[in-house]
Structure formats: structure tokens, C-alpha cells
Specification:
This protein is mainly α and 129 residues long. The chain has a single domain, classed as Arc Repressor Mutant, subunit A, CATH 1.10.10.10. It is built from 6 helices and 2 strands, in the order αααααββα. It has a two-stranded antiparallel ribbon. Helix 3 packs across helix 5. The chain is elongated and about 70 Å long. The chain starts with 6 loop residues before the first helix and ends in a 7-residue tail after the last helix.
Length: 129
Amino acid sequence: MSVNSSPDQFHELMVDDEPNLSDVMACVFGVQEHEVRTYQTLLETPASTVEELADELGRDRSNVNRSLSTLREKGLATRKRRLLDGGGHVYQYTATPLSEARELMHETLDEWTVAVHHRIDEFDARPSE
């Protein structure tokens, strides 16, 4: 995993006395505000379908689907297939519990920090020309 943030996001996070979950998740995971909102909605309504989330968030189903794909890639959501009585199936999504997401944020930042320290150590001692 890697931190996918801009220097501006890090700067804003460092100077903010009380960054919120959205700010930290955006910085650490490189996710957008609407993806954080999707995650927070999943925390409140586990086992939601894309259609239910789209209605709750007031967003198009295809956009919600993309948000869910991103959250799953980052380890912030899971998907489970549920068979329907009349045949077929539907996917239900659940957010990774906040306690696990916090641990994932710590791990991601720790990995990034190690990588940056290694990169700093690789800098040539001679001034650039």
C-alpha cells in the first residue's frame, strides 16, 4: 500500500488542529470526499446494496459502484453475494469496522514513512548541479 496524497494534503493535515476522518482518509488513502461519504454511510448501514447506497447518498449507481470498488481496493469495504428468493443474486457491501480502518491507516502511514526514510538516505551528499 502507498499513501497517494499531494504535498498540499499533507500540509493541510499537519496544520489542522483537529483533522476529521474525511481529511485523514483522503490524505492516507488518496480517496475522494464522496468515497469517504460512501464509507461512512456503510458504517451506518451495513450489508447495503448499490441501489440502497445510491438512494441514501443521492448519487448515480455507477458512481457509487466506482466508490465501492475503490473502497474495496483500499481494504475499507467488503462485498458479499446474497442469493435472491426468486433467483439471481445481489451484492451487499459492508464497511471495514472503524477500529480496523484506523489500524490500516497506521500501517499505511508506517509503510510510507519507512519508504520516505529510505529515499532520504539515498540522496546524494553532493549538491545538485
